[in-house]
Amino acid sequence: MQKLFLSKLIAYDYWLNMRKNFSEYAPIQRCACCGKIVRFKKHGYYKRYYNCKEFMDKIEIRRYICSSNGCNHTISMLPNFCHPRFINGLKEIFIYLTQYFQRKGTVKEVLDISQKLTGMNLSRQLLYYYSKRFIDNLRYIKSTLRVLDSKIELPREWEGKKEKAKQVLTLVNNWSCPINMLSQRFHEETLITLLYKQKPI
User: Fold this and answer.
1) Domain residue spans in the chain?
2) If we measure between CA atoms, which residue out of 33, 32, 63, 64 comes closest to residue 48?
3) Got the DSSP string for 33-64?
C-alpha cells in the first residue's frame, strides 16, 4: 500500500538528502489489514524512477510495517510530488493536461508547447492515457474540491466531459495550493489517487 506525505523539498533536493528525509516511524494510524491503530515501524527502502523538469533518476522510498503481532502489512511513504505508479512528475502531467483540454490548435502543437514548458517529451499515446484517467476521475476530483471549498462553483452535470475537464483544470490551476498538496488532500479524502484507474462496474 502506498501513502503520500508532505515533502517541502523538490525532487532534486529530496534525492540529495535521500534517507535524511525519513523519520524513524510512520504516523500512528489504523492498519488497513488488521484494523488496529498502531505505530508502523521502519521496514527498509526501495528505489523508483522519478522524472520531472529538473530531475530524472531513482529516489528512495521508505517502507514501514505494521507493529501488530502477526499482521506484517506494509506501507510505502511517497513524497507528495510523486504519483503512485507513475514515473512522471504530477506538476508536469497537469501542464500537459491543461494544454490538451484548453487547446485551440492540433495535438502536435500541444505536445510541442508542453515540452517547452516542462522540459519533458511525452508521447501522444501517453497524453491520451493521462487525459482518459483524468476524465474518469472527474466526479471524485469535483467532490474533493467541494469538501475543500463548499462555495466553489463546479461544472454542471449536463456539460460534456471535455468541457467539465477544462473547467476543473482551471479550478485546480487557480487553487491556492500547489497541485502536489491538492493531490495529497485528494488521496486523504478518497483513498485513491488523481489518476487512479477506475474499475469496471
Assistant:
1) 2-79, 90-190
2) 63
3) TT--EEEEEEEEEEEEEEE-SS-EEEEEEEEE
Q: In which band, very low, low, confident or very high, does the pLDDT at 201 lie, cut at 50, 70 and 90?
A: very low
> Residue 198's pLDDT is what?
64
Amino acid (1-letter code) at residue 23: S
- Among candidates 119, 120, 125, 93, which has minimal Cα distance to 107? 125
CA distance 97 to 83: 15
Tell me the sheet residues that pair with 8. Answer: none
Question: Distance between CA 140 and CA 186 in Å, rounded?
Answer: 8
The pLDDT tens digits for 98-148 are: 999 999 889 999 999 999 999 899 999 999 999 999 999 888 888 888 887
Provide the H-helix boundaries in 89-178. 90-101, 107-118, 124-136, 138-148, 161-173
H/E run at residue 74: strand 74-79
The whole-angstrom separation of Cα 169 and Cα 162 is 10
Q: Is 200's pLDDT higher than 60?
A: no
SS3 letters across 164-194 = HHHHHHHHHHCCCCCHHHHHHHHHHHHCCCC
Cell of 161: 466531459
